[in-house]
Design brief:
10 strands; alpha/beta; 346 residues; globular; three-stranded antiparallel beta sheet; homotetramer
Chain lengths: 346, 346, 346, 346
């Protein structure tokens, strides 16, 4: 009953095996190895176009360096006010970007609406040179509220952004979960919908420590090698990070793992609903936000369930309820869900 | 015959097994796990004192964040002019330090002498506020020339540094190799000799991607958690980086692996000397710098040997010779050495 | 009829004369001159305590360096969401602070309330290390809405801030205007009310280009000399910036000039009220925010009046009205006010 | 007898008068004024081409922002090892450039030779991405040793730099002195010889606090407005900095003032030579470096002469001599020179 985060899960067996298989003989460091070359080609296939790919060991550094690469120091990144980059990365984008500014936009269920983005661009004070200039739009897919942007929504937001010269970044720490839900291709959910740069997440999905920054226009990735190195994010025994990603992408493992996590979230959501604790936001990925009673909370904790309380962010909870975040992963089992629901009901 | 770098080696089996053993059940992310707690205690034992330890995935980020933590933006780091931090990290210390300055000191065989350090501190233009102020001394152990600082040398340099208020940093990417050679304790080679902060290397020694920043005065590590996070160097599935270090330290595995690499370097050095290519700098760790003839160079490359040519840095080579760097690792075999020497001799 | 900004005014004659008087003979550069020493002593008198003073040529650099000096890179500055530092300095605090984060708090009439500050500190996600940590509270005196904080208000806010370990900064670009209104001493309005560091403004008040960063605990100013130099804000012919400030402080010139500006603002406000355009926020310094009709707007512009339209920031304007900001200065004359009011009335 | 620095001089009367003349009526702030527009046009005339001009209050911020604008964070600036940017600006270029690296090249009399530049580019370790990449060449005109680069020398160095894609920056804090000596046009000494960006100095030449960053290709100045603002270097009452520069350029005042300073340096040099203290480097601008006896040093100081001792930088001094730097300015009189020489001779 461990629902604290999907990063509390371990390594998917296929990925751990791939690390082991890569552990033979010698390979040049810093990405000059066959695993890395293969993974670069594989990304091009997955996204159906040439891309520039840079593997890094954490989602925070992926986001921060991706944003720094498309935002000048006097630029602003528009993002959801509760997004990971705005709240949970201790100012990493500001640091890597040389003091860029993140502008948090409000929006229900963790999502930025087209209307809100238009308003921010129209009514904000920009440039001049007294004000920062909007340089990037960052969307979280899935969002921090467990919801997802449909391809059409991304397209609409991207069009607004591009019209004003902003680059579009997707924080895809849980991209697999979003894709598994939508049943559209990686290309459709990213560059075909207007994304310029993607933080492709593998760690939460089942890897040990592996993320990728993907530029859909390879020219945009020029000098990212230098940024990654001086940002401390270039691993020396690079074949092992590449091997993780390779296994993750192999025969759509990432989507299979994501689907499993999503299925568990659905099972959990249904049980919560049946128990009168219907999730407050649509369950579209692997996160469930449920208002439970204080008694249930106590029972669950006593039973050993692990999860975090969460701010309701504008949702009004029934009296006597607390909002909790429950995150499933590829590792979650139906038995865990059922045990949780039993403890919930008391 | 792969001598390009010790990061071309793989993962030591004991360490890979430890990753596998850690891959069971759930664990809270970001260092809130049992592996991390154990490894922190283990470091205290290894260094015979309370320390503050921060695990990070690359040596570059370990060095850069360690230096940034003990150097104000207007500070200077004195280091060897050919040190890794000065030459090979693409400006990472400058970036993480908010624009600190690295002052490269010359010195034979990759080492800074006490006289040179005294001269730099006495004759440099410091503070005022027109000039930067010396804030840290960084020593590489082993050096980029494969030599090592004896404990007495570190003590003398540290005393000079401390007298002027500088912190003493050791880039210990190959600390194990140095220790294995000297047969002194980790404490004797570091804080007992005056070191304040250490980049403890495990990757080159046999880990997959694991380094540690160790503050010998734990108070000095205050807020390093924040720096690591915003620097993108906090891994989410942290148990796996901790498990690597735990196995590395377990029953002195790190020293055993280092000793094996050193032994291979010695074997190589002897063979080179016998072949008239005596190393130009003392072989004290796992790096051998040998002047070989252009013909031998061709023969070796034809035979599949992999290594880098190296600038002679003030050493005058015999005519017709080129300096090459040969790095051994825990993975190097006597058979590889012997094959190399055969190809060398032609 | 020039009400665009108080920086559109010229140099007060007394200050220009002081520059001229200082233009004799030689003086060592960079602050090693008698004018600077005198001005430092004068600040101690004005504030009735030892202070550390650093003269700089712009308000932006004063604010940004003051904040950077009391905020670590992983720190947050809490400020009003419409404050100059948050909106009008193109990210200077973020840049000088190495990527610090500014957290904008809402509040009527440009002011932060104690309740709002308490809420932000209590409900925000801080530290951890996933989140930035609150490090400073910045108050604008007078505010961007032309209102002022009374000493008791500053005290209450400072107490809340200090309890959480935050430093208290005052952006005093218009401190003179606030003081002239309150008739309390500089000490009472700053450190006696809890301020730790002050951006002391002289430019808007009548100087040519002269501001001062004042640390009320001189120890807190340690190394600010270095920060100022490397931030490009140390003037070489320093006697001339010191001479400006000296004249500004001489026989309370700054307060006299501020009083004149305030009086003109009052005259303007009265006239506006009489004309049915009562200011939307209390006129407590030298800025008047008045809702005028579109017709009046046209008439005024046709008559040559210069001012900026302003966002109403939550105030609902009568239909057909536009909010305009009218800033008076020491240079404003009653005749200008009266001409403006005539044009307004048509 | 004040030879400590040319920034110890005051304001040239013509420039002070211009400030006074500008002090009438109102003018929009931040450069939106007539003085600024005129000065921009004037620069285009002076340099015989369209340029992008940005006025700033200090030479340090001019250099640092100019370099930051043409150097990516992973870039290196090649400069003389004793240049002002490398030694005397407390790391400002590193700070403004986000951690760029300055590579100091040795060279006699403060000058970089073509051979040295070629060697540095050929033998340095660049890019890769382990190493920083050379991005700019910075030349000081006149140099810190009081020498100057002839147009042909600049051309040769620029050609080498441009071939490798480096931008060429001139630190022209004393450009007027160099031009006055060479009797060539500003265009010939800058962009016609290959310079891309210039820190145009006025302060040392006679202004109060006024410098300009000049991009010879205006497109290269894009977004410099933003950089200047967030760097705290945009003055609000901008007409007064523009008025200084306007007067400085008016009827070649800058060259007349520089010529006066140079003449005084020549007079001083001749007297020193006659007294057996011939300057160690050619006196080509307004700085004289003379080896004087300890006795003479004492006599001069007793007589009230003010100057700095200087490191001999590779020049071997006669026994019993100390090297002193003597800087003349537009304000220096023949009487001062003669009094100095009398005291020197004893």
């Amino acid at each position: 009953m461990f629902f604290a985060s999907d990063n509390a899960a371990g390594i998917a067996p296929e990925i751990l095996e791939a690390i082991g298989r890569a552990n033979t003989g010698y390979a040049l460091g810093y990405g000059n190895d066959e695993w890395t070359k293969r993974v670069e080609r594989r990304f091009a296939e997955v996204f159906e176009r040439d891309v520039a790919v840079f593997l890094v060991p954490s989602g925070t550094v992926a986001n921060a360096q991706a944003l720094a690469h498309v935002t000048p120091p006097w630029g602003a990144v528009l993002c959801h006010e509760h997004s990971h980059i705005a709240v949970d990365e201790c100012g990493a984008p500001e640091f890597f970007g040389g003091g860029i500014k993140l502008i948090g936009l409000s929006g229900a269920a963790g999502k930025i609406s087209a209307a809100k983005l238009r308003e921010a661009l129209a009514q904000g004070q920009w440039g001049g040179p007294h004000h920062v200039s909007p340089a990037a739009l960052s969307l979280s897919q899935a969002t921090e509220s467990g919801t997802i942007y449909r391809a059409g929504e991304i397209k609409e937001l991207s069009d607004i952004a591009h019209e004003r010269g902003l680059a579009v970044h997707i924080d895809g720490a849980r991209l697999g979960n979003a894709l598994a839900r939508m049943n559209i291709s990686p290309a459709e959910a990213t560059w075909k919908a207007g994304a310029d740069v993607l933080s492709f997440g593998a760690t939460k999905g089942g890897a040990m420590a592996a993320e990728a920054v993907v530029f859909f226009d390879p020219a945009r990735g020029a000098n990212m090698l230098d940024r990654r190195k001086r940002g401390g994010a270039l691993l020396s025994k690079h074949r092992f990070i590449a091997a993780q990603i390779e296994a993750f992408l192999e025969r759509d493992l990432w989507l299979k793992l994501a689907r499993r996590a999503n299925d568990m979230a659905d099972r959990l959501a249904e049980g919560l609903k049946a128990a009168g604790c219907a999730p407050v936001w649509p369950v579209e990925a692997n996160e469930v936000f449920a208002p439970i009673s204080h008694d249930a909370d106590k029972r669950l904790q006593a039973a050993g369930a692990v999860y975090h309380e969460w701010p309701p962010f504008g949702v009004s909870l029934p009296a006597g309820r607390v909002l909790v975040r429950l995150v499933t992963s590829f590792q979650t089992t139906a038995a865990e869900i059922d045990a949780f629901l039993r403890a919930l009901r008391g």
